[in-house]
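User: Design a sequence. Structure:
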């Protein structure tokens, strides 16, 4: 019998049936009264969910577009921007910002470690930064940035906007926009929301909306807050055709999140992550991120000596689980395992078990069952 493949890469994540059904519905006219009411409810629910008095934009596009939308609406050519990078996706802001003619400074650390918050504070004192970008969870390293602490620091700098990339965090890692001092949060549908790829979300707090107003006309068109704001308030208006079925799917995802409870969902992610990471270590793998900054949404799992990445991932796929390879200098040295969104113990136990079967087939010596046992003992 052929295995059903579990997609355990860090996004897209497994899509649960009720979300799939929304994507499979007959597409209606985008001015259909039922749809426009659904769209409006989604936007309002997303604002309520992450607690902002500001705005939320839900637009067709990927996480990268959301990164660009976040930066474009609060900065202008010649502004200073500070990029705090914990890996490949943090670095992605560098090129993006340089192309916009921003003066870019970067704070980074060795992969797997966070930039100390004191370094961020000293850097912000050096000059007038219009914005700072922080990737909440960098998917290349599995490092989770201390957003709450960073928010406390940035609050002291009245002209500086805190832009948080939540693509691999939002709906899985604890985020509350206004109270954490986040000015712009960006995310996408395919990770902890558990929807297929294709929707970008950008939340902009009151300070960010004021900044946008002060910028006048910006060079960007499709990603301009001011073009989309009338639609977010009244989806009967038109700017670009909304991704009808994905909007329904995201609405269902938010319904599931509210049903579970956001705090409960955050706690579930932490508990699962700790248990999965301990399970991997018990088999003999390492984890790239330091213990004090490990993400709850994914793990970057380092191979023990002698395990070949390509062979491991090929056999694991035969055993029914797809994981992603390492990025940058860690290509070939680790695999990236997502454990976020709408997954449950069945999926995680199956994943750990498939990893154990793979290691058995590779002739690796370990106590068979130890990964599953470790997970179960920690989770139950
Ligand atoms: N930021 C982070 C943290 C990501 O993990 C990713 C995608 N893996 C992106 C941005 C880019 O998102 P997308 O691939 O949807 O454009």
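Assistant: Done.
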């Amino acid at each position: 019998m052929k295995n059903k493949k579990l997609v355990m890469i860090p996004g897209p994540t497994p899509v649960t049936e009720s979300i799939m059904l929304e994507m499979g519905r007959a597409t209606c006219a985008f001015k259909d009264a039922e749809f426009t009411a659904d769209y409006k409810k989604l936007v309002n629910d997303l604002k309520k969910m992450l607690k902002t008095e500001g705005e939320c934009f839900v637009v067709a596009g990927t996480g990268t577009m959301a990164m660009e939308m976040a930066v474009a609406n609060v900065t202008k050519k010649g502004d200073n921007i500070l990029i705090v990078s914990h890996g490949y996706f943090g670095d992605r802001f560098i090129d993006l910002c340089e192309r916009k003619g921003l003066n870019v400074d970067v704070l980074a650390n060795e992969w797997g470690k966070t930039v100390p918050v004191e370094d961020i504070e000293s850097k912000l004192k050096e000059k007038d930064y219009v914005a700072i970008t922080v990737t909440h969870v960098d998917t290349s390293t599995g490092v989770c940035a201390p957003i709450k602490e960073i928010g406390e620091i940035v609050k002291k700098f009245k002209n500086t906007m805190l832009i948080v990339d939540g693509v691999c965090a939002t709906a899985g890692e604890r985020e509350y926009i206004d109270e954490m001092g986040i000015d712009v949060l960006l995310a996408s549908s395919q990770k902890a929301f558990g929807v297929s790829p294709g929707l970008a979300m950008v939340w902009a707090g009151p300070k960010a909306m004021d900044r946008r107003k002060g910028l006048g006309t910006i060079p960007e068109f499709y990603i301009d807050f001011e073009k989309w704001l009338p639609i977010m308030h009244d989806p009967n208006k038109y700017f670009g055709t909304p991704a009808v079925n994905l909007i329904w799917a995201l609405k269902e995802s938010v319904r599931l999140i509210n049903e579970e409870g956001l705090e409960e969902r955050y706690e579930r992610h932490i508990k699962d992550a700790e248990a999965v990471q301990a399970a991997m270590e018990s088999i003999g793998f390492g984890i790239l991120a330091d213990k004090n900054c490990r993400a709850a949404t994914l793990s970057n799992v380092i191979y023990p000596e002698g395990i070949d990445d390509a062979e491991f991932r090929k056999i694991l796929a035969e055993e029914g689980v797809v994981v992603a390879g390492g990025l940058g200098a860690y290509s070939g040295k680790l695999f990236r395992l997502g454990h976020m969104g709408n997954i449950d113990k069945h999926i995680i136990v199956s994943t750990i078990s498939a990893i154990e079967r793979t290691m058995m087939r590779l002739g690796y010596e370990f106590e068979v069952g130890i990964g599953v046992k470790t997970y179960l003992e920690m989770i139950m």
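Residues 11, 62-64, 67, 89, 135, 138-139, 165, 167-168, 188 surround 4'-deoxy-4'-aminopyridoxal-5'-phosphate (CB under 6 Å). DSSP finds 13 helices and 15 strands in the chain.
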